[in-house]
């Protein structure tokens, strides 16, 4: 009896009847009044940040917009955790090591073709920003859009 079942399943497999149903399903959502939608082209970003909480927020924000994201920080354990949870590329490099950062940019250029955005958050921490850390991540994302190319640099005054 088990042999018949296995033979039948193997025939279905060979005939392609067990293949997953391809295609994507899309959910159409109505926009709310006053809602602003901004489409991003495929882009890559390098985040330089030693504070794990802030790096995680910023990397997550860019990943939600479907960016290719890489980040540098010295803490291997926290960096690995962020990379695995957010789906980012992690370089265990201290952000103060200019020579190794050049190597990171060269590696990303070779892999991705270019680095479109560099978010330099060295010297900032999630604790300093407090409740506005999420807003800072969203602001960085917004400023990275090509239509806002007039913004070359943004400095936070705390």
Write the layout of secondary structure elements.
Elements: H1 2-14, E1 44-48, H2 52-64, E2 68-72, H3 76-86, E3 89-91, H4 98-112, E4 117-120, H5 126-129, H6 133-143
Parallel strand pairs: 1-2, 1-4, 2-3
Helix pairs in contact: 2-3, 2-6
Structural overview:
The protein is α/β, with parallel strands linked by helices and 158 residues long. 42% of the residues lie in helices and 11% in strands. It contains 6 helices and 4 strands. It has a 4-stranded parallel β-sheet with strand order 3-2-1-4, with helices on both faces. Helix 2 packs parallel to helix 3 (76-86) and helix 2 packs across helix 6 (133-143). The radius of gyration is 22 Å and the shape is extended. It starts with a helix and ends in a 15-residue tail after the last helix. The mean pLDDT is 82.
Termini Cα gap: 74 Å
Oligomer: single chain
Side-by-side strand order of the widest sheet = 3-2-1-4
Number of helical segments? 6
- Percent strand equals 5-15%
Structural class: alpha/beta
Looking at the structure, what is the overall shape? extended
- Tell me roughly what share of residues is in helical segments: 40-55%
Could you list some keywords that capture this structure?
alpha/beta, extended, 158 residues, single chain, 6 helices
Question: What does this entry show, briefly?
Answer:
By secondary structure, this protein is an alpha/beta fold. It has helices at 2-14, 52-64, 76-86, 98-112, 126-129, 133-143, and strands spanning 44-48, 68-72, 89-91, 117-120.
